[in-house]
């Protein structure tokens, strides 16, 4: 009878550890779903790996009242160690994603207003429109998107925005409220050249994720890379959207983690810099300066020579 060694799959953290490298300058992950259940078992190690990769600040995304409250609690729970060599600074956003718009009630805005008063809440969102899946009816998405835009205007908070297959209607709603008193960031941009022109014309900022690392023709990573030179450097930021969008520049596929982490943000930085024809150091510095200016982050604590605000 032949015995077989027990086969064990590598832990996600071990895969990340094997593929991570440090950014040449301090960088900011402006969008990470850190309260996702996939991070529950090893969050301290996830934060430690981020710090080791020179990812010096994380913006934890709130996509509904539950996750926004969880993000606030996470930020509070880790406040003592934030900004140390073993943990990045933590901030969060408070909003309702279009997928979750159907869950909104008359109390939603009251709760978002309360969360937005937290000193580490840096934006209203993730909010916007998603006509690709329509997990919430389009009219309900539109109603609650506009309500959150109005709230952000009232509070003079930045907007952290989601737009997928809804560019025209998305822009129409925002135009009704421009000029906005604070910046608006289109998170995880994957749209067309026309959409990009429209968003930039409204003075929006653009977040680029590991989508740019995807070499599958049907996914549009190459098209996104081709659009990057059209984005002014003072409008461009980088993010992971972890645990989603693991950089597919990590090869072979068996070495690629199934869960994305902030520690892999330097892969996004590297791909975006290559698309722009600049060094990762140059793009890292500019994207961090933009994040500090847009979200009010402390440049000195992030290791920048001067505060850009």
From TrEMBL:
Pfam families: TatD_DNase. A divalent metal cation 2 binds at residues 162, 187. Keywords: Cytoplasm, Exonuclease, Hydrolase, Magnesium, Metal-binding, Nuclease. PROSITE patterns: TATD_2 (PS01090), TATD_3 (PS01091). It comes from the Eukaryota. A divalent metal cation 1 binds at residues 126, 241. One of its GO terms (molecular function) is metal ion binding. GO terms for cellular component: cytosol. InterPro entries: DNase_TatD-rel_CS, Metal_Hydrolase, TatD-like, TatD-type_Hydrolase. This is Uncharacterized protein. The lineage of its organism: Eukaryota, Viridiplantae, Chlorophyta, core chlorophytes, Chlorophyceae.
């Amino acid at each position: 009878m032949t015995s077989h060694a027990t086969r064990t799959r590598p832990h996600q953290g071990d895969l990340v550890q094997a593929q991570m490298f440090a950014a040449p300058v301090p960088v900011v992950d402006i969008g990470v779903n850190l309260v996702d259940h996939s991070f529950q078992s090893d969050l301290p190690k996830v934060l430690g790996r981020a710090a080791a990769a020179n990812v010096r600040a994380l913006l934890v995304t709130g996509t509904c009242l539950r996750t926004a409250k969880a993000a606030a609690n996470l930020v509070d729970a880790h406040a003592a160690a934030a900004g140390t060599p073993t943990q990045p600074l933590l901030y969060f956003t408070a909003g309702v994603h279009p997928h979750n718009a159907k869950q909104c009630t008359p109390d939603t805005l009251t709760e978002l207003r309360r969360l937005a008063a937290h000193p580490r809440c840096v934006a209203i969102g993730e909010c916007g429109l998603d006509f690709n899946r329509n997990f919430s009816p389009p009219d309900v998405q539109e109603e609650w998107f506009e309500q959150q835009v109005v709230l952000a205007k009232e509070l003079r908070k930045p907007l952290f925005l989601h737009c997928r297959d809804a560019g025209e209607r998305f822009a129409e709603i925002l135009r009704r409220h421009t000029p906005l008193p604070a910046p608006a960031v289109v998170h995880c941009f994957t749209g067309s050249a026309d959409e990009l022109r429209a968003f930039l014309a409204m003075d929006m900022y653009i977040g680029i994720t590991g989508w740019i690392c995807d070499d599958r023709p049907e996914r549009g990573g190459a098209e996104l890379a081709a659009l990057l030179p059209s984005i002014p450097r003072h409008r461009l930021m980088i993010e992971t959207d972890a645990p989603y969008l693991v950089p597919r520049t990590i090869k072979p596929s068996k070495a690629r983690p199934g869960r994305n982490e902030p520690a892999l943000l330097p892969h996004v930085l590297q791909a975006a810099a290559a698309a722009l024809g600049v060094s990762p150091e140059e793009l890292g510095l500019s994207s961090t300066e933009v994040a500090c200016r847009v979200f009010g982050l402390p440049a000195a604590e992030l290791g920048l020579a001067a505060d850009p605000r």
